[in-house]
Design goal:
Largest sheet: none
Structural class: mainly alpha
Mean pLDDT: 77
Distance between the termini: 40 Å
Number of helices: 22
Shape: extended
Helix content: 55-70%
């Protein structure tokens, strides 16, 4: 795969932006994708028509159930075309056995009713994981936008189908035979019923390129965000622009685009005694929100009830049979949707609690035996204590430790002033938090400290002892007050 030959700009996108990109790709390559879909669907439609010509009510549901097999060839063609390889239709048709998944029957059984099929099909067809590896891969890549994409596309298919039916029924010129809506919906062996089935199949085929392309774009968006394809392209362009590898330019680019992860040593939490806990609980229970009551007065009619009129007979002009048929269709559609939803919820609950005795570990939970630092209870130090500790480390030859001591003291001080900085905060997050808290002189000092820290941590250069000494000499008094710093490692 050559990321530099993609049909669209490679950058991290939100799920909605990825869906919009997929729809744009479908509009651009609609005819090839539509032809690939019909190349896979037409043979199955003809074969099933031979066996179900006396049961037209089963023909369309059978084709609908085989949609995952029809979407494999458009996805195969799109995955090549997006990276610069646009296959002719005859070549794509010859590669249909290669485009289908190795095991097609799971896609036509329990995975058929999944709402995220548009997103899971690229993983199944292009990466071909199986079993637990597939579930783990989908869990890492997963996005909830795929379910909404399926719901939206189903509604668009219904709009196209109903638009075609109403157009044939009401918009044909006078003198031409119109479409009987009642026969199209209820008369199973009539010509209008077959026309309605063909219109539905046409609507499904029109939406298929958009559905496949949007799911593929969601898949690319998640891989770009997780695997940093955009950063890889920037490194390649920087290398090509200089005519070859250049260590200095690569290091400079790494300083601009590299991830900045800050980990601060946690401080032990202070547990409450049972008596203090009981006092806190009693204080909460004493609030008005707990155990309060109120009285409300309402007007209630206590007179005699008037005689309820009987059911009104429907007017003769109303198509009662058509209304009854539509109501029956809606009833069974609602029941089918409820059954599908209950099945989906059961599968999700089964996957979520397949290990009931193992609690997932939150990203914000500290490791076992440690606790998040509580900066509001850290004792204060004066500026000369922080400077003296850092100066002692510098004189002892541990310049990196002295720099880390200053940087960790800055983080703890910012937290003590109310800044919300998680353990994964970057240097940019720290500067943004300091902008709202520190004065201009303190902010200039913080910027110098951050710049020196980035040079040492990410460019792997030796500490500039002269710059570090200047930082120690100009350490602002407010930055050290309230900062409790433990032992720092370089």
């Amino acid at each position: 795969m050559d990321l530099s030959c993609t049909a669209a700009t490679t950058r991290p996108r939100t799920p909605m932006e990825s869906i919009d990109l997929g729809f744009a790709l479908a509009r651009t390559w609609f005819l090839p994708l539509w032809a690939c879909w019909w190349a896979a669907a037409a043979p199955v439609a003809l074969v099933t028509l031979v066996f179900l010509n006396q049961h037209p009510g089963l023909w369309l549901p059978a084709l609908w159930w085989f949609k995952p097999a029809f979407e494999a060839l458009p996805l195969y063609w799109l995955s090549r075309a997006f990276f610069g390889e646009r296959l002719p239709l005859r070549v794509a048709v010859r590669r249909l056995p290669r485009a289908l998944p190795r095991r097609l029957w799971p896609q036509l059984l329990w995975r058929r009713i999944g709402l995220t099929r548009s997103f899971s099909m690229p993983v199944t067809l292009l990466e071909a994981p199986r079993g637990a590896a597939r579930r783990e891969r989908l869990r890492v890549l997963g996005t909830g936008a795929a379910g909404w994409l399926t719901i939206i596309c189903v509604h668009l298919e219904s709009v196209l189908w109903l638009g075609g039916l109403l157009g044939l029924a009401f918009l044909l010129p006078e003198g031409l035979p119109g479409l009987d809506l009642e026969a199209a919906l209820l008369a199973e062996h009539s010509a209008p019923y077959w026309i309605a089935n063909l219109l539905m199949l046409l609507a499904i085929s029109v939406m298929a390129p958009f559905y496949v392309a949007a799911g593929f774009a969601l898949y690319l968006g998640r891989r770009t965000r997780l695997e940093a394809w955009d950063l890889e392209l920037e490194f390649r362009r920087a290398r090509s622009a200089r005519g070859g590898p250049n260590r200095r330019s690569a290091l400079a680019l790494a300083l601009v685009l590299g991830p900045c992860v800050l980990v601060t040593p946690p401080e032990p939490a202070q547990a409450r005694t049972p008596a203090e806990a009981r006092e806190a609980i009693d204080a909460v229970l004493a609030e008005p929100d707990f155990g309060s009551t109120r009285e409300e007065r309402v007007w209630v009619f206590v007179g005699e009830n008037e005689e309820t009129p009987g059911p009104r007979e429907p007017d003769a002009w109303l198509p009662t049979e058509l209304i009854t048929g539509i109501a029956t269709v809606i009833k069974w559609a609602v029941l089918l949707a409820a059954a599908v939803l209950a099945t989906w919820l059961g599968l999700r609950i089964l996957q979520e609690y397949q290990h009931p005795f193992r609690r997932p570990r939150s990203a914000t939970t500290a490791p076992k035996g440690e606790a998040n630092p509580d900066t509001t209870k850290i004792p204060s130090l004066v500026a000369r204590d922080l400077a003296a500790r850092a100066r002692h480390s510098l004189d002892a030859g541990d310049a990196r430790g002295a720099l880390a001591l200053l940087y960790q003291g800055l983080i703890i001080r910012l937290r003590g002033d109310g800044a919300r900085l998680p353990d994964s905060a970057t240097e940019s997050d720290c500067l943004a938090a300091a902008t709202d808290i520190a004065s201009q002189a303190e902010l200039d000092w913080i910027r110098r400290l951050v710049r020196l820290w980035q040079t040492v941590a990410y460019a792997h250069r030796d500490v500039d002892t002269a710059a570090l000494g200047a930082l120690l000499d100009t350490l602002p008094q407010p930055l050290a007050v309230g900062a409790a710093v433990g032992t720092a490692r370089g």
